[in-house]
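REQUEST FORM: STRUCTURE PREDICTION
Request ID: SP-0412
Submitted by: Lab K.M.
Chain count: 1
Length (residues): 61
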Amino acid sequence: MPTRALARVSAGVGISVLAGPALAGAVLAGAVLARTALAWAALAGMARAGTAPALGGGLPS
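STATUS: Completed
RESULT:
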C-alpha cells in the first residue's frame, strides 16, 4: 500500500475515532430533548383538557 493511501486511511480512522463519541453524544442529547419536548406537549394538552395531574403529584381524587 502506498504511503499516501496509508496516511489517508490513518487520518480517516483517527477522525472516526474522535467523531464517534461526539456523534453518539449529540444523538443522545437530541433524544433527551425530544422526549422532554414530547412530555411538555403532553402535559400542556392535558392541562387544556382539564386532565393534568395536580402539582402535588398523582391524579386528582
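NOTES: The mean pLDDT is 74.
Reviewed by: T.R.
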